Amino acid sequence: MKTHGGGNDGGVAGAVVEFRTSRPEIFDFLLQEGFQVSFVDRCTIREFLCCQLALCGDYTEKNIQTIFLNSRPVDDVDAAVLRGDDRLALSAAMPGLVGATMRKRGFFAKMRHSISHDSAGGDDRAAGRGKRCLIQVKLFNLLARDLARDFLARGIFFPVERLCTLLGRRPVRFFADLNAVSVNGEPLDSPKEMEDRLRPLSGCVQLRLLGD
Amino acid sequence: MDRIIRIDVGAPGGPRVTEEGLGKYAGFGGRALTSAIVCAEVPPTCHPLGPENKLVIAPGLMAGSAASTSGRLSVGCKSPLTGGIKEANSGGQAAHYLGRLGIAAIVLEGEHNGSDLYKITVNTDGVKVEVDKSLALLPNYALCEKLKETCGDSVAVISIGPAGERKMSNSTIAVTDPEFRPSRHAGRGGVGAVMGSKGVKAIIVDPAGTKMRKPVDPEKFKAANRAFVEGLKRHGVTGQGLPVYGTNILTNVLNEAGGYPAYNFGQGQFDRAADISGETQAALEDERGGPGSSTHGCHRGCSIQCSGTYYDKDGNYLTKQPEYETVWAHGGNCGISDLDVVAKLDFLDDNYGFDTIEMGVSIGVAMEAGVIEFGDAEGAIRLVEEAGQGTPLGCILGAGAATVARCFGVERAPVVKGQAMPAYDPRAVKGIGVTYATSTQGADHTAGYAVAPNILKVGGDIDPLSPEGQADVSRNLQIATAALDSTGFCLFVAFAILDQQDTFDAMVETINAMHGLSLTGDDVVELGKTILRMERGFNASAGFTKEHDRLPSYFTREPLKPHNVVFDVPGEELDQVHAF
Ligand code: SF4
């Protein structure tokens, strides 16, 4: 088995699965669990979203309303700095008092002040800045739907064992929405073969959405 | 909506129905009315199941109108679970039908003697009370099937299951939804037991021959309601998040925040949260029931439609879409990560008439005590079945989490004033801990919902990022929520009116046009304050002191992972919440 990945994307995968689909949002089941994606170390959340993923402006401001960095709600996307192996979770605005409490700079933010992300201190941005490494990202609810294409086109890393478990739970429709699936460059006769091909592997698989 | 129907179940010769105008209760609806009647007419020190207690069922001020998302029903009494005042809120069809019949409240009162079980029918002809012992101990779904044979399914039924008949402290009052399923519940505080103590099994509300209530200013009403609906649709939460994913959209977010109480509040994250998230649940519902199954209203006229329908593997109806709190209580709180099991438990709770939060937390406490293991799905189902059948163990579970903890010698009972905490750990989200501690209702997540306090400016501007002033925020929320609970508008309109001034204005304008009023934000605040003062006064007379406005001490002692935080808001600050 040839090892794919590596290079300048900062990730190593036991296999690369490439596919086409007009409905990348069907992968929301794994986007919510968390996946790894390469990024340039020690950037701010805004730099990551805007410069590295091209998610700028209105969409980010209006729709990415709830942000967690290592389980801490973030209020200032320009101050919170991302480092390798961090965990970043992105969500739309949430209902209810606690939903409102978790929002960035929300009216009720003080209600969770003891768990809020503190961007002060530890300013070692210069040290490892610019290096490519991996960050774990979770996309929840509407953002999983809206941003699936952006992340999958970039290529995401996901634990192969868990992927097989989740693929086993997918309805038939899921596979019907996939086209031109290949594993390590070898085309599959049917997308449903994916699980069998991946099951003997360990570590992470890279999933990559191909363009039209 | 100017009539109060009183049914004295202890009158000589059988129940007596009387009707009166609103009198001193004029201007009140929903929670304002239930609390006003309970405060004025129920001795605070009475036994909740005794003849002095009353059960008040009141639709909100907008019931029976065409106002969007306004069909919520309030049920009030002295609570068997907390020993204090209670308002439990429900969806379903009954509120609008009562409004169309012109009924502001139904009051069940007096001493029920003997074993008669009553079925009450309310329609345009008046109110009829009949003895029907054949309904005894029927679970809610079977009861509705039986009632359908004689009443059809275009009525609404307000009923109790076996839990209410057995007067369990955890017992709900069910309300039928648009499909005539008893899936909506006034869940909290044991209100079902009070209905049971009056010997009333079911109230059938028949709207035949009635029309929608007319606004005082129809043109203004139409325009305001249109703007209100447009605002709800425009907002990301009420227009997209809630309709697509339901309230369970919160699982992933609370879990990520480390504020998701797993394993009986033993830790702040559940490693299998994604298996029971709103995203997973909505996909499953749509897959099994067809697209759109995850979007449904608890009553007709809701523009948000945060509910849905849950089907089993074969596509058969299993239950309504379990709420976030239910999925948490029976799921992560008990170490269970199977949505089919959660849905089954939700159905059993609805059928027997148990509050899902109280029952899930009771089972979590039982798991902590070693009655069954955390994660034992079959054991959890067995326990709810036992509670429904009223076995000795079942009766302990049906008495609520605090009683379960006492019976099994467990300190970790996550309760305030005897009522189980909902799905947010107060150590991670301290502001909600302030609300749990100080609410007049016992631990209650809806007591401090996000209702536009920035617009109402209750108590002035607040810097959201400063840690100080949690008491101020909690106070403002409790005031605003009490006011909204009186209108009949669903609390989920909160986000749209919080973020969009024009939507808030449209909502107030809808109320004004309906009733010919000129309410301002200040009036809304004053109404909320009045309600809270009444409720606090009742609780004080019932024996509650500031020492009852506290969380169990283990929350101040045992750090919650992953943030390793304890609840450390000082008592003096908690005491400031109701200082207005
Ligand atoms: S938003 Fe949900 S709870 Fe509120 S009225 Fe609509 S369906 Fe019922």
From TrEMBL, chain A:
Domain of life according to the entry: Bacteria
Protein name: Uncharacterized protein
Organism for this UniProt entry: Pseudodesulfovibrio alkaliphilus
Lineage: Bacteria, Pseudomonadati, Thermodesulfobacteriota, Desulfovibrionia, Desulfovibrionales
Automatic annotation (TrEMBL), chain B:
Molecular function per GO: 4 iron, 4 sulfur cluster binding; electron transfer activity; metal ion binding; oxidoreductase activity, acting on the aldehyde or oxo group of donors, iron-sulfur protein as acceptor
Obligatory cofactor(s): tungstopterin; [4Fe-4S] cluster
Highest taxon of source: Bacteria
Key word 4Fe-4S present: yes
Database matches in InterPro entries: Ald_Fedxn_OxRdtase_dom2, Ald_Fedxn_OxRdtase_dom3, Ald_Fedxn_OxRdtase_N, Ald_Fedxn_OxRdtase_N_sf, OxRdtase_Ald_Fedxn_C, Tungsten_al_ferr_oxy-like_C, W-dependent_AOR
UniProt keyword list: 4Fe-4S, Iron, Iron-sulfur, Metal-binding, Oxidoreductase
Matching SUPFAM superfamilies: Aldehyde ferredoxin oxidoreductase, C-terminal domains (SSF48310), Aldehyde ferredoxin oxidoreductase, N-terminal domain (SSF56228)
Pfam families to which the protein is assigned, alphabetical: AFOR_C, AFOR_N
Keyword Cell wall biogenesis/degradation attached: no
All residue ranges annotated as the Aldehyde ferredoxin oxidoreductase N-terminal domain in the record: 1-211
SMART domains: AFOR_N
Cited PANTHER family: ALDEHYDE FERREDOXIN OXIDOREDUCTASE, TUNGSTEN-CONTAINING ALDEHYDE FERREDOXIN OXIDOREDUCTASE
Family under the similarity heading: Belongs to the AOR/FOR family.
Designated name of the protein: Aldehyde ferredoxin oxidoreductase
Organism from which the protein derives: Pseudodesulfovibrio alkaliphilus
